[in-house]
Design brief:
eight-stranded mixed sheet; Rossmann fold; binds magnesium ion; binds adenosine-5'-triphosphate
């Protein structure tokens, strides 16, 4: 196992200039996909190149929200049916998108050599072409989500004020902390009635987390419940002025240039967790 791991490290550890953000939640429907798309577009407007990877394994909904129909996905790349260029869909010149299909589950099931070879090529491509990579994950505590979230530089956990969403956000943070040794989290509260409600909901998660877990929770802010968004999503144009303003505030607290604690790249951590998990 030691030899295998050092091979994995050598092959993929070429450092990292890009930063990797994961958007995750315990409960479904809290706004992860809407937030991933809008964050990507706002970050790209300050002249950065952003790649969204839809980790909604088999249930990709980034493209549905945008009314796009990419015909190839990560799974086609893994199976040798497409090159990386062919699976990248350009939403605009600075925001690109890869739909993962069943790709991430397929990757986890490959042998170490194939995982390294595939992640090495994706690493090369991501680092050459993008500043920020955003993963939109499915809700809940799936192995693939835990691996991606705990390997990323900036894990953002989304909750709403609903008690079930709060309980599930805490449960996700707890598993990431106790099983995957993740300590630093960013928390965003969506669908709030007010700024005060956002702060109160974050406070309730923080109080329990401080008591039972060894974590640092960073509150990045709130988004208000915004009726206009529903109509815009139906029209497959999920953008809104207030949402953009609020996300700009959130972004002030998201460290896009975060200094990396180790030289280990996102892809190296991912490969190791896939084999050890
Ligand atoms: N701030 C908001 N105000 C009003 N509606 C919102 C807001 N954020 C998200 N929504 C609505 O919530 C619904 C779920 O949003 P979205 O699909 O982004 O959530 P999700 O967390 O990605 O869901 P899933 O867990 O199924 O992937 C959408 O219909 C969207 O319109
Ligand atoms: Mg979603």
């Amino acid at each position: 196992m030691e030899g295998q791991l050092s091979h994995l490290k050598r092959a993929i550890d070429k450092g990292s200039n890009a930063r990797y953000i994961t958007i995750a939640s315990g409960k479904g429907g809290v706004g992860k996909t809407l937030i991933s798309i809008n964050l990507a577009i706002i970050i790209a407007s300050s002249n950065k190149k952003v790649l969204i990877i839809d980790g909604d394994f088999g249930l990709s909904n980034v493209h549905i929200m945008l009314g796009l129909a990419p015909d190839k996905n990560l799974s086609d790349f893994i199976n040798g049916k497409a090159s990386i260029d062919e699976i990248v869909f350009k939403i605009n010149p600075n925001v690109h998108f890869i739909s993962s299909g069943n790709g991430i589950q397929e990757l986890v099931n490959l042998n170490s050599k194939d995982i390294v070879s595939i992640l090495d090529r994706i690493h090369e491509y991501a680092e050459t072409n993008y500043d920020i990579i955003i993963f939109d994950t499915p809700p809940g505590i799936h192995n693939e989500t835990l691996i991606i979230t705990s390997s990323s530089d900036i894990p953002i956990i989304i909750s709403t004020p609903e008690p079930t969403a709060v309980a599930d956000a805490y449960a996700l943070i707890k598993v990431l902390n106790t099983s995957m040794m993740l300590k630093d989290f960013y928390v965003l509260i969506n669908k709030c009635a007010s700024k005060e409600e956002g702060a109160k909901v974050f406070g309730s998660i923080e109080t329990v987390a401080k008591k039972f877990l060894d974590v640092n929770l960073n509150y990045v802010g709130y988004l208000t419940y915004n009726k206009n968004i529903i109509r815009k999503i139906v029209d497959q144009k999920p953008f809104d002025k207030l949402l953009t303003q609020e996300l700009n505030e959130v972004l002030k607290r998201v460290p896009l240039n975060i200094e990396l604690k180790t030289k280990e790249s996102f892809w190296s951590k991912l490969a190791q967790r896939m084999k050890l998990g």
